Amino acid sequence: MAQRFTDEKLLELIHQQGKSQKEAAAELDVSEAAISKRLKKIRVVVNNNTALFNAPRLLDRQVGQMEQLEALSRQTRDLLQMIYTALHGEGHDYWEARTKLGRLVGPKGNMAQFLVQLQDNLRKQLDFYFQIQKEAYNIKQIKEFQEVVMDEIKQLEPDAARRIVQRLVELNAAHSSLDFGLDRE
């Protein structure tokens, strides 16, 4: 019967020693399919842990994107207000809005078509904004969950918490090397 092997031993053979799956299977006295299955399982764990580990950075990036989207939304609302003024305004405001819009639309442009396109663009921006908000909320939930779990583990077993963080860091490093093809030198 084949002996059991650890993820660490498998990763050492594959990533540190540069062995193929077939060579690792022979050394560990298991089938190549068992090696493949274990590596797949490790990658799933790495992906899940990487998402938890990177949640704070992703949340910061989402905030920056939301600020940019809000600026675009303000510009779009200003354009809509300018169009409204050009259609319903009077005096100086009317002529100023018509002149600015004329430059935007062009001499042969259609103001009604421009308005429809602008409103469609605003709708798409709002949809995108809501998607970002949803993702930011999900990332925030993951981060809060991670903090609660780690706090409880720290209270119960500080050494276990340290080992968990160390393993996550190691898995994150292994995942990064897989992503960039650095697993074989």
What's the SSE blueprint?
Layout: H1 7-16, H2 21-28, H3 32-88, H4 91-105, H5 111-156, H6 158-179
Distance between the termini: 33 Å
Overall shape: it is elongated
* Category by helix and strand content: mainly alpha
Question: Please, what is the average pLDDT?
Answer: 76
The parts where pLDDT drops under 50 for at least 5 residues are 177-185
Domain module tally: 1
Percent of residues in beta strands?
A: under 5%
**Alpha carbon gyration radius:** 28 Å
Helical stretch tally? 6
Please write the string of helix (H) and strand (E) elements.
HHHHHH
Number of strands: 0
Helix fraction?
Answer: over 70%
Largest sheet report: none
